[in-house]
Structures are given as C-alpha cells and as structure tokens.
Amino acid sequence: MLQTLSRSPRLAPSQAAVLALAAAAAATAVWVRERARQAEHDHPPDGRFIHIDGVRLHYLLREESHGTPVVLLHGNALTHADFLASGLVERLARHHTVLAFDRPGFGHSTRPPDRHWTPRAQAGLLQPAIAALGLHRPVVLGHSLGALVALAMALEYPASLPGLVLLGGYYYPSVRLDSLLVAPVAVPVLGDVLRHTAAAVSARLLLERMMRRLFAPHPVPPGFFATLPRELLLRPSQLRANAEDGACMVSEARALCERYARLKLPVTLMAGAEDRLVDREAQTGRLHEELAGSELLTVPGAGHMLHYAAPDAVAQAVDRMAG
Fold this sequence. Notes:
By secondary structure, this protein is an alpha/beta fold. It is built from 14 helices and 8 strands.
C-alpha cells in the first residue's frame, strides 16, 4: 500500500524576504509608538494649552514683567523649549511678557490633517491665539522657518505687530536638497508608514549630526538634550510636522517674497556669519536690501543658532524694537 506524504509549500526567496521585511516593519512601528508614548509620559507639557480652530496649541507664558509682549516662534525640528535652552526666555522675561508657542505639530501642539500647514496657515492660527491670550501688539521673533511664519503674520496682520526680529531665516526660493529628501515623509499614507519605520530609524541615526550642523561652528551645548529630549523630537508627530514644513518652505518663500516690499513695519534681521544651513547673503542680505529701513546685524563667529551664540545681542535687538 502506497502512502503519499504531503509537504507544506515552500516560499520563494522573494516572498520570504517580503514577509521578513513586513514583520520587521511591524515590530519597528510598535517600538516607535512605545517610545513616543514613553517620551510624552516622561516629559509632560511645561506650559498651558489654548484651543483655536480645532488645534490644541501648547504655549509657555512668562508674565514677570509688564513690558512690551514678545512672541517667540521656533524653527524646524525643535519646540518652544529651544528658547529656554538658549536662555533667551530668561533674558527677555526681565523686561517683557514672553509668549513661546509650540508651532502646530511640534512639541505638545496638535496638527490636524484637515489643512495644508504652510507658514501662512500657521500665521492665521497663531495671530488669533495671541489675541485670545490678551497680548496687544507684540514684537514677534522668529528663528529659521519660524522667521517665515513671522513674516507671513506681518503680511497678513500688519496692524497687529509693532515690528519683527528675524534670526537666520529662509526668505527666498532656492534649491534645497533637504527639502527634497523629507518630501516622501510628508506624503499622506506613505509618510505615515515611513514615520513609524524607516524615517524613525534614520532620524535617530542622523539627529546628532543634524544638531552639530545647526550649531556649527560651535558645539552642541552640553545641556541641550536635557531641555529638548531626543525622543520628544523623534516622535512620528514631530517628524510629520518637520517634513511638511521642510517640503513646503521653497514654494512658500516663492509665494511670500513677492509681497515683502509691501512691509512697512520695522524689521531687524540677524544672521550668523558662519551659518552653514542658510545662505546669509542670498537670504538675509537680500531681504535687508528689499526692506527699506530694516536693520541688519551679522553676528561674527555665530552659526545658524545665533540665539545661543549671542543671546544678549538678540535680547537687545528685541528691546530696541519694543522701545
């Protein structure tokens, strides 16, 4: 009597590789979600919240002084705590009411997917939030991409601001490799997958290098990651906001730069002489030439993070603008 033995069909090498990759991606996604949950548990919000147009905005408000209010807008990849780590909040709080936001999607602020969060859209959210918090005609300081948001705010609400202080900003369209590289992470669905898998891993591998480039030629301050914890900066929500802002900055600069000549309010422009992230002459220098009456301050030896290299000079620029 013959017996037939049944065998389980073998997977082709390509099928086995796909299954292994899928399993690794699923495990990575679980790990990433757990890291994000733990980071938010270990580092709860240090400020308060305001709900504006469906967005929960996290902000820090310092009211020790009753001087002219100042609003601080941070750059990409960071949070409002960047201004705490640099000491700028402490310096400004001696003479001003200081309001520092987590821009939408960064830190503990939400970023609903129901709109395209351009600098203009962010300005349209932050201006009513400032008014709702009772701050009248604040000086607005923006750093890096936050400077583009500040410019959008001045263009849309010129009567609401007495002046701007802009640090290391990106104002005119140019070829940006970093903008192209982050574009896939900003794409719906594909970006959701990447932020929980490949992009989450690569961001962890590249974070230290990116920060060294931001602070160059100076080293990253020793206490920087104590104030801005790594895992908070690496959550999928933060990676999404970072990617979306980076992907749209060239097109937004192109749209906004046509209106710069209309600005009539005072503007102080500051740039680090050794900035390796933004072309100082092509960006800050060009805007200074276009804005009649603007003040240009170049900080010798400073890079992109000039509020760390020269916090007193930045605070003095705000004092002059407020005065």
